């Protein structure tokens, strides 16, 4: 039986170059017929085409003519592409995407072709939404009101019982004629709706409330004194028909330490209970404004049949991916989204029930149920629901529900999975920048408060007592792109064993199966002295007491070459019984680093203590002992080789503390990366002796 008798076939597209911009018809069968994949339910189009072929076909094919006009709208006539080739991708019901490289330009460029009408799509040029060419506080308020009404009326996941809470102070937005003023709230205001503002201060904040200005702020704030970002946010709330907005610079007395500490501990309540948060996502400072001038032109295409209206523009998915798909890290260029790189704003984003992002090219609404933007009538949640932030919001609603806290289940996960969620957030959070890195624990307090009811132990300095062996295994991210401060340093008063003790991003090993983790570590004592009344805030002193296998070793520094010493730190090794193991130092060991306790090259005593945290196994049973020379092998299947993790902390004795301080970590692993060497811990495990160790 021939293929044509078993497959739905047709005579083929009118244009063999663009396939009529319909879901792909496959290449002809031997008898010359084409497979009609649309009858098989296929809805996608994916083509790689020669530009010269499309130009030739455009003489008779109206769809190819549309593609050429879209390209020339942005690149001029007869653009020159790398290899003369570009791709066309589409799906029924969504816009068409053109992807290409210009000769001599490494940047991949995109063009979106779409219809803005409500007609039924006849091909893969589907519907999208025309974005307002100019956005104002009034227009933004209209868009926000529509999204808010949809959320309140139809989103079951977003329904929350609002706590009777209002911040200590809010700004009354006034009117067009009457200036705004600060309000000290009272008990009878606890049910009022307010908007919270999330924004970057920039290098300076010209308008704040201080002890000296508090009285005048209560009387009124002149419009001329209000920076543009705050000015537009206040106007926006006026057009929403609300009276109050919370702005940290005005609602916290900035030079009153006790007030600042009290209000910082309230951030969780401030952002959780706001009607929604207005995020000045693309503004680097208070003088820029929330609603920026838009520079993404839209071209109406004329090479179309009279019944159609098609447009071409640069797609907004740069904003979509940077805000959502790449939300877990900041390695990707975030020049257009400076707010997303800041530590304080990360917490505000996590705590907010709903957010309106004011990106440079469009507004995006995010709630638990949807991610909706100006450029598309459809929710983006399906495409961007897997990042740490969106997943966190959904998971936290489940795990914080008291009705789910009886037995471990999907809605009440065991401690390991809760700690795993915590570490995912901490790893992302550690990549964010701070003006003062001493604020790291303060800005994390609201998130820590969310985790407190989840039975994961005592919290100090960013680490919980439950599953502590997993949390102590953090590593400074040695990727050069991750360096926030080149020199690197310790954060004063933060305990050396905590990831928040350094001003650098950190990473944690991702162990998917908790059954693989075995530990011989016992937590004997875990105590700290708080710097503020906030139990999840910063500490002035903290101490761990552990019992676990340990070995002694010596630090060896391998200097970089003379020509690289300004860009490459020392390689750091631990020597034990004539073997050397690569260590990642917590503070990079630069050749020109000033002498300090963390500069290991100047330490006259190079002795260290190496402390086992845990090891991972695969295919072992409880009655099979681990071979310390080859713990990654399954004794019952010696031919099989498994991934393994054996993190060991490296400690130095500190006489002034009468305890050890962490200086680095050895990551024994059989999955080497650019900053790790494959190495086995057999010798160290074989000679390890259980000790009680105090670490500060």
From TrEMBL:
It comes from the Eukaryota. Signal peptide: none annotated. Residues 194-348 form the Heterokaryon incompatibility domain. It holds the Pfam family HET. This is Heterokaryon incompatibility protein-domain-containing protein. The lineage of its organism: Eukaryota, Fungi, Dikarya, Ascomycota, Pezizomycotina.
